[in-house]
């Protein structure tokens, strides 16, 4: 291929490669710095019970406001963090911050339920993960039952004895486990039934557009039924439209998350959102009391 493209083609190719490698190293460097300078932040997206609209949890989503690049999306920097190993320190920061914020919501008397934190394979399998997790909970004074870990389906933990033992130990402490992006990977029934999982988060790509077509309906209906049969709670991610919400209600999907209900938001905004939500639910349950 190099011969076909000729000398110029080859030179062009290596130059591109050098640029992208350079860009990656630059980002890696900036990411380390951002972590050291406490320049990263968490946004929180509510997860709701579809039947009554109550908040059942929030998911912590990492945000990196870069001084010159603007907001760098996790899809760009998480892979870099994973490959470089920064994910271990980064993940620990996320856990600590999320536990601390969740403790604050409890203290304010307005807990949104569990706080869910995304965990990468490399972070999970790092030797210090378990101790760091317990320490994070203890330092924040957060009960383990207020925390959930989201593991992506692609982590392929099936048959991984070390991961299995670890997750069992985590679950034994009372921390909940969710399989994230379900439906995009290759989970087997073996995977779902052998790991101590509570929740299945159905990947938003399975919605296949703003109005669920016959195929999307069939697939999601089947996953929700399977989750129920296995005693897992199903959460549909990425709900954006009223049509999707109607369909999910129709098939009895227990929980939802998505822009249609609430976007990920900074912590102070989440507090306001929770207060408004509580007022709304109170007004619905007891209209006379809130009419003053
Ligand atoms: P995820 O865990 O599946 O998170 C859900 C993603 O969907 C988030 O993207 C969220 O902003 C987005 N989302 C939520 N509702 C909607 C919707 O209605 N429509 C659309 N189009 N998108 C919606 P985000 O924040 O960009 O994060 C992307 C991925 O990056 C996450 O996917 C997760 O895998 C990873 N990630 C984020 N924060 C962390 C972290 O702290 N640690 C690790 N290891 N991974 C993280
Ligand atoms: Mg997630
Ligand atoms: Mg997800
Ligand atoms: Mg997803």
TrEMBL record:
Residues 24-278 form the EAL domain. This is cyclic-guanylate-specific phosphodiesterase. It comes from Rehaibacterium terrae. The lineage of its organism: Bacteria, Pseudomonadati, Pseudomonadota, Gammaproteobacteria, Lysobacterales.
């Amino acid at each position: 291929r190099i011969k076909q493209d000729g000398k110029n083609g080859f030179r062009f190719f290596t130059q591109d490669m050098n640029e992208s490698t350079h860009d990656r190293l630059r980002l890696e460097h900036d990411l380390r710095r951002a972590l050291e300078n406490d320049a990263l932040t968490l946004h929180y997206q509510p997860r709701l019970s579809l039947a009554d609209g109550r908040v059942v949890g929030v998911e912590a989503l990492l945000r990196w406001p870069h001084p010159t690049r603007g907001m760098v999306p996790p899809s760009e920097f998480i892979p870099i963090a994973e490959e470089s190993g920064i994910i271990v320190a980064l993940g620990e920061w996320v856990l600590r911050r999320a536990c601390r914020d969740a403790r604050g919501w409890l203290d304010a008397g307005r807990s949104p339920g569990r706080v869910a934190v995304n965990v990468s394979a490399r972070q999970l399998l790092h030797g210090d993960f378990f101790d760091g997790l317990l320490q994070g909970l203890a330092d924040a004074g957060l009960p383990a039952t207020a925390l959930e870990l989201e593991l992506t389906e692609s982590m392929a933990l099936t048959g991984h004895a070390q991961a299995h033992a670890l997750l069992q130990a985590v679950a034994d402490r009372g921390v909940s486990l969710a399989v994230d992006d379900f439906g995009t990977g290759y989970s087997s029934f073996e995977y779902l039934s052998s790991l101590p999982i509570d929740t299945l988060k159905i990947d938003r790509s399975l919605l296949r557009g703003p109005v669920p077509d016959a195929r999307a309906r069939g697939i999601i209906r089947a996953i929700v039924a399977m989750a129920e049969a296995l005693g897992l709670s199903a959460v549909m991610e990425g709900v954006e439209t009223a049509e999707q919400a109607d369909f999910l209600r129709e098939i009895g999907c227990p929980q939802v998350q998505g822009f249609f209900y609430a976007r990920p938001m900074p912590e102070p905004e989440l507090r306001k959102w929770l207060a408004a939500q509580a007022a709304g639910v109170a007004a619905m349950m007891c209209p006379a009391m809130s009419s003053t």
